[in-house]
Write a structure and sequence with these properties.
Helix content of chain A: 25-40%
Mean pLDDT of chain A: 88
Order of helices and strands of chain B: HHEHEHHEHHHHH
Structural class of chain A: alpha/beta
Strand order of the largest sheet of chain A: 6-7-8-3-9-10
Strand content of chain A: 25-35%
Number of strands of chain B: 3
Largest interface: A-B, 23 and 21 residues
Mean pLDDT of chain B: 85
Helix content of chain B: over 70%
Distance between the termini of chain B: 25 Å
Largest sheet of chain B: 3 strands, antiparallel
Low-confidence stretches of chain B: none
Number of helices of chain A: 8
Shape of chain A: globular
Shape of chain B: elongated
Number of domains of chain B: 2
Largest sheet of chain A: 6 strands, mixed
Strand order of the largest sheet of chain B: 1-3-2
Distance between the termini of chain A: 38 Å
Oligomer: heterodimer
Chain lengths: ~250, ~300
């Protein structure tokens, strides 16, 4: 199933000449200019160390840009005050390669946790957790612990947790990195389902097969710079440095 | 309503974590209790010394001026009025020769002497109560210049005793405050490290809380409650032990050093309980706040 990409004119994410330089002097991102519209499904591809994770960390404001302007949901993240950060993060759903589930908590508790931090009532939590688990196909597994689940199921729980507070932007950092191809494809189906509801999805990935099969927007990064932005792209590794120098 | 639910979350989470990290928390309770026992002991000793000093202070803050036998009553009244007008004087009382003799005779140690003497050899007196101990010296100087004073034994002023008492009182206050500061610092460091250990075990949970949009105070809340719980339990333990030891200590002290005016003071028990419980809770909260600060920062 391939859902056609939906572009609207409202940018959800806007990078304007963004640089990220770490204290040791390394430029992780160099002069990034990128716009992601509402409802976009964007793959962020590139070799390890290219700058994908740095870009993701900027998007969720785990780090601040060194230079330039980064707007997400109309908020400028470099000048975002600490006290406004929780409200910003509630509008973003996050999924990680290593799932980041709490082993002591059941599936229900792991997903409910995101709503407890917002002070939601038990009724609201029960209803929304049920709906999120149903979306990811885990209805009936509420009482299981993460250790009792497969890798794919654990990633589904993580997606349900990211989904439960109904964010308008989904950011996933290598969500299929620890999964076999069949399970990875199942996870991508869930992301497509979420995207079909109008949620913007930004996914950093190494998975060439999925990117090529999906034919969605692909932004390729190499050594901290965007080298390609293709609306119906394929996964192409950045050409070797020697070739770039020749060009 | 949301705030109430978040408070409930903080309390239930703190309760769960207290039991989950029982070994670390028991160690913290014992350490803080030991420190609070030391603090409580210093408070009790300070109070006991204070009691003794107060008794002596009360005694020496009343200066007794002997009046020469032939002094006219008008001169006594004039001097009395002069003393009353001073701001450093709290009260003035004229004691006649008869009253003074009666008082002298009422002391069993003077019985033999009373039987041997004829007439009334004791002088009339003016008893002056002063506001502060260091005022006694000035009143004594004034009395010695008064014409009506009995030149053989003008006053009962004990200059060295007062000076020493004032010095002792100052040193005790400084020492007590210094000890309290050291104990407070030690408790804060202990609670801080305990909470930091608990936080380290839960760093992934904290990281996730922050990523899903929890505020700093939401993350900090359970740890603060846990710190207060640890502090209050330690304070209760310390208080129980101190109260159990207080009365036997006073009884033993009075038996050994009967001349010192020390007594069991039930009113101080309330003060001690209040100080230790509030102190324990505050130390727990402060230790948690400092211990968790680095981890909860967004």
């Amino acid at each position: 199933m391939v859902i056609p990409p939906r572009y609207s004119n409202r940018p959800v994410i806007r990078f304007q000449h963004v640089w990220k330089t770490y204290p040791n002097g390394t430029d992780a991102l160099r002069n990034i200019c990128l716009e992601v519209s509402e409802g976009d499904f964007l793959f962020l591809v590139g070799a390890s160390g290219a700058g994908k994770s740095s870009l993701v960390r900027l998007l969720i404001r785990e780090e601040k840009p060194t230079r330039g302007r980064l707007m997400v949901h109309g908020q400028e993240l470099r000048s975002l005050r600490r006290r406004h950060l929780p409200h910003f993060r509630r509008k973003v759903g996050l999924v990680f390669q290593d799932f980041k589930l709490l082993p002591r908590m059941t599936v229900h508790e792991n997903v409910a946790f995101a709503l407890q931090t917002l002070g939601e009532s038990r009724q609201v939590i029960a209803h929304q957790v049920g709906a999120a688990l149903e979306t990811v196909g885990l209805a009936g597994r509420e009482r299981s612990y993460p250790s009792e689940l497969s890798g794919g199921e654990q990633q589904r729980v993580a997606i349900a947790r990211a989904l439960v507070h109904e964010p308008r932007l989904f950011v996933a950092d290598e969500p299929t990195g620890n999964l076999d191809p069949a399970t990875a494809w199942e996870i991508i189906q869930i992301f497509m389902h979420i995207n079909a509801a109008g949620v913007t999805v930004v996914m950093a990935t190494h998975n060439r097969e999925i990117v090529d099969r999906m034919r969605r927007r692909v932004v390729a990064i190499d050594r901290g710079q965007i080298i390609r932005d293709d609306p119906y792209g394929k996964y192409h590794e950045a050409p070797p440095a020697a070739v770039l120098r020749l060009q | 309503m949301k705030l109430l639910r978040q408070l409930f979350f903080a309390f239930s989470s703190a309760w769960q974590n207290f039991w989950r990290n029982l070994a670390v928390n028991v160690a913290a309770v014992v350490s803080i209790a030991l420190i609070l026992i030391l603090a409580g002991t210093s408070l009790l000793l300070g109070h006991a010394l204070g009691q003794v000093l107060d008794t002596y202070r009360h005694r020496v803050s009343v200066l007794s001026i002997s009046i020469a036998d032939k002094t006219p009553l008008t001169s006594v009244y004039d001097f009395e009025g002069q003393l009353r007008a001073r701001q450093d004087v709290v009260s003035v009382r004229f004691v006649t020769k008869d009253e003074e003799l009666k008082s002298f005779a009422s002391d069993p140690r003077n019985q033999q002497l009373i039987e041997q003497i004829e007439g009334n050899p004791v002088p009339a007196k003016i008893e002056v109560s002063v506001a502060h101990l260091d005022d006694v010296k000035r009143i004594d100087a004034l009395a010695r210049h008064w014409r009506g004073v009995d030149r053989t034994d003008p006053t009962d002023y004990q200059g060295d005793f007062i000076t020493n008492m004032l010095r002792l009182s100052t040193w005790l206050t400084i020492g007590g405050l210094g000890m309290l500061a050291v104990l407070t610092l030690a408790s804060v460091v202990i609670v801080m490290n305990t909470i930091r250990t608990a936080v380290y075990h839960r760093r992934e949970e904290i990281e996730l809380m922050k990523l899903v949009g929890a505020t700093e105070w939401f993350v900090r809340g359970p740890f603060m409650v846990e710190g207060v719980m640890t502090g209050v339990i330690a304070a209760s333990l310390a208080l129980g032990l101190l109260l159990a030891a207080y009365r036997p200590f006073v009884d033993r002290f009075r038996a050994e050093l009967f001349f010192l005016p020390l007594s069991y003071d039930p009113r101080f028990v309330h003060v001690l309980a209040q100080d230790l419980l509030v102190g324990g809770a505050a130390l727990g909260a402060l230790g948690s706040y400092v211990g968790v600060r680095r981890f909860v920062k967004l």
